[in-house]
Amino acid sequence: MKPALASTTPLHRLSRVWDAETLAEEPLAPKTSVRVGGNAELYVRPRSIDGLLGVLKAAWAENLPLTLLGGGANTLVGDGGVRGITLKLPADFLPEEVRLSSSEGRLTLGAGAAIARLIQLAKQNGLVGAEFLAGIPGTIGGAAAMNAGTKMGECMSVVEALEIATPDGIGWTERSALVCRYRQTMLPQGGVVTRVRFLLREGDLIKSAAQMDADLSYRKRTQPLSLPNFGSVFQNPPGDFAGRLIEAAGLKSFTIGRAQISAVHANWIVNLGGCTARDVVSLMELASARVRDLTGIELRPEVKRVGVFE
Question: Fewer CB atoms inside 10 A, N or C side of the chain?
Fold first, then answer.
């Protein structure tokens, strides 16, 4: 049985009034793609916009730690778990919207929806332009917040606007008003993406499908998709590739505990079963130090660490 929150804590008091599902000491490892990490002190799934705003306002007013969890595809949770509130927007938190014109279409999806839903919705409405997102795990909100993508493109290149909630309220922000970088979209402090409006164009669906099939086939050949992982570990430095540098440092297939630098792609770390966050961090630190010593290049992590690392 999971331990209950102490009745005197702000988390216990507040969780009783929010319009949200709240779970104490909820395991987070099954909610991440690499399958490691501890528990959430309080796991919260809002049922409504009012519920979400209530959580955000309370976290700000009570100075409570707040951690956002999307699809868990690019997230490493510490073995000590996550203190405070772990916020997860359900896939059906907000409805979809489709607006079509003669040559383009606007697709609005909730932040909790899977990226795969965008690809499906675009195909159903004869729209192209987001093919590079096909096969990327995670949620729409996570893709927007981290400007997810591949060498073929970045998420925010096909976004028209984001709906963002803060402790002060909720509203739309145009893409042109946001600063977007490699694997990062600069959101307002305390901001949570609730919906994303994509602007796509009409096009050749046969060519679109062929492009996605070719890209997915390439990923299956070059990425260790059969084992739990969180995708690319480090950002590619300018003019080079993190995987090439780590492989050149002799670390391909290197293992610490039950974590391994993949034998398929050196910029991926896989869980061989029973892996801990400490195993993963140890490999990341080793790869970073070895590449720095050999080349002088400082690798920057792409994966997001959350929680307590012991």
Answer: N
